[in-house]
Amino acid sequence: MAEVFNQLTYYHLGAFTMNKRDFLKNSTVLGVAGSIVSPSSVLAHNFDRSSLKDITGDAKSITVDERKARVSKAQKIMRKMNIDMLLIEAGSALIYFTGVRWRRSERFTGVLVPANGDITFITPFFEEPSVRESMAFGENVLTWHEHENPFDLVSNVLNNLGLNKGRIAVEETVRHFIVYGVQLAAKNFQVVSGQAITRSCRMYKSPAEIALMQKANDVTIQAYQYVYQQIEEGMYPADIATLMDDATLTLGGRPIFSGVLLNEASAYPHGTEQPQQVKKGGIILMDCGCSVHDYQSDISRTWVYGEPTKKHRKVWETVKRGQELALESAMIGVPAGKVDDTVRAYYEKQGYGPGYQTPGLSHRLGHGIGMDGHEPVNFVHGEATEISPGMCFSNEPGIYIFGEFGVRLEDCFYMTQNGSKLFTDL
Q1: What does residue 361 show for φ and ψ, rounded to 5 degrees?
Q2: What span, in angstroms and rounded, lies between the C-alpha atoms of 147 and 144?
Q3: Is the dihedral of CA 384, 257, 216, 409 positive or negative?
Q4: What is the pLDDT of residues 228-254, one digit of tens each?
């Protein structure tokens, strides 16, 4: 869970150093109880600032050949679906297929992917030199001046391909003004969703993508280990978030979000405007992520500063068991929604819910992740998409008790032919 809330920073619950085997072995004794305690518990590592070093030097960015293979895969899917052209605007999809990093604005910059043949970029005339700097491959760039209609260029490309009618697919996040502009400029073409094309590519990660996500997770977990021992009574969420951002940068990651929720604020998954400071016996919930060569991590940890109450311990242990059940039930061929159902059923047996009601798990169990912090598909009731090798998910159950506190634990994993594999130990 990586959304920003109320201009605050935020949350989560989990042990930093205990691996799954140790957790299961000690689940009824101090192994679990200790993992919610600060600052002398098993969570702590003896890091000082000088111990933080860039660990991303061996990370390899996505190759040109892999990006070309992605375009070829998309084109193959397009031909099967009788799609003549795929339009992608600036954003993560443009980076995924072409390497071009560009910001969204009122001026259209994007790429046209034909069912057969070479891709064509469209951008304002004065942006062409900058766009070319990040093009991984391709030579065709069409430009438009400020008084011209960029969508006429889309029609021109279709005409040059000998197409006067057919179907244009748009990537699912393309904004309406672009869709509408294409509809007016290419009136003989049906404009349809390109969701099936791009999801069929992006949902299934390659070994190179998995390696970058692993590195991003390594950065985030080491940053947590450093920040954990720096927290002091009286700190504000922004103080802790700054520590996390600084540690992440030093370790070689690019901070994406560093969320901190303290005390009662932890009961509200996306925060509150209540004043928050670290205090003895108070919950600290953090939800943080970074990117390495465009691929993201998303890890949440929750603990108590000082001595936890019996209720703290009980809730934490219940959330952790839900996280384990999610990992156990995420199997090849299982509909993604069943994973959420399994955990939610367990929580209901413990007296929470029912369903998404509080006290209980008020949000979906998890989401896909990759270049975007939130990608399809989700662990949510009713999601029928079957889990397949290469898919990556967050596993982030929580229990939220409005007016008191909340606990959330989040680790990400990916699917192999043999089942799930964690990026970080539970």
Answers
A1: -90, 105
A2: 8
A3: negative
A4: 999 999 999 999 999 999 999 999 999
